[in-house]
Amino acid sequence: MAFVRPSLLAMLLACAVCLSLCPPAAAQGETEIDLIQTLGEEEVAAREARAQAAAEREHRERLEEQSRLRQAYQQYLGAARRTAMAAVEAKARRADPQQVQQLRDEARAIIDRPNLTKAMVQQELDPIYNRLEELLVPTQEQLYAVNADLLALRRQIAPGNGNDVDWIEEIAIQYALAANNRDREVIAGNIEYRNTEQYGMTGECDGIDRCNRLRMVLGLNPLAVDFKLVEAGRDHSNDMATLGFFAHDSPVPGKETPWKRAENFGTTASGENIAAGYGNELQATQGWWYSPGHLKNMMGQGHNRIGLGTHGKHYTQLFGR
User: Fold this and answer.
1) Phi, psi at residue 307, to the nearest 5°?
2) What is the DSSP letter of 271?
3) How are strands ordered across the β-sheet holding 314-320?
4) In 3D, which of 140, 222, 230, 143 has the Cα closest to residue 189?
5) pLDDT at residue number 45
6) Pairwise CA distance, residues 223 & 207, whole Å
7) Which sign does the torsion angle of CA 181, 184, 188, 194 carry?
8) For residue 318, what are the β-bridge partners?
9) Which tens digits make up the pLDDT trace of 9-25?
């Protein structure tokens, strides 16, 4: 879970405490001995004790807030998952399984066309995908209709963390859409990489979640995050941005191909998408959806792993078997 950074007010208070210990004294060139002589040893010691107590209190309050948020996130995630399971099951009962399979088969046939164009994706594939979403995936409003308490749990987190908690409901929906236990384990495992300082993948996880959502609605398996592929992607995005090229073939010795770049980070790759100029990873993923070659890559049936590495407005998406 995300760690709570010290607030601006807390930092200002810390500065105020510091100034109260050695205010004008430093400006007037007074030494610590002068300060003691002016205020007395007991007063200086009392000020130091108050400052120490304030610092300890601030630290304790910060830890308590972190603990509260962790518990709130866990509670929200659990409630969202249970709610999504109920909502998806309700939709599944109303949907015709044969219609769902027919739509998925039609979507697959479009994606596999050798002459696929962006216009075909927009005019033929999009309507099929949107219909599958309607049949299979609950909206946010439908989730709240199933469990009104979910919105209250969300509001416990949102005030101190903006509104960047949509991913929890997205993960819950994907978990509910999972076809088997292996897919559920993949979805649950991908949470590890989100909102942690160790990986720093918040935006990249957004793109990966979007790719998995597209795949699962079309009946494909979700992809597990391979952080080594993320690092290889970040490295290639950085090279493209700093060296001024845009290609799968890199001019950097030892990094000429996606396969070599993956190997440099101790893993393997089975496909690569690149993009530049988009505002974020979600937009880049949507751009790949409307680009036939990139779409075929994202919807590849042999993939099991994924990495998305960003540098500035350059994006590299890697897949692995």
Assistant:
1) -145, 140
2) E
3) 224-225, 305-311, 314-320, 271-276
4) 222
5) 81
6) 12
7) positive
8) 272, 307
9) 233 233 333 323 334 43
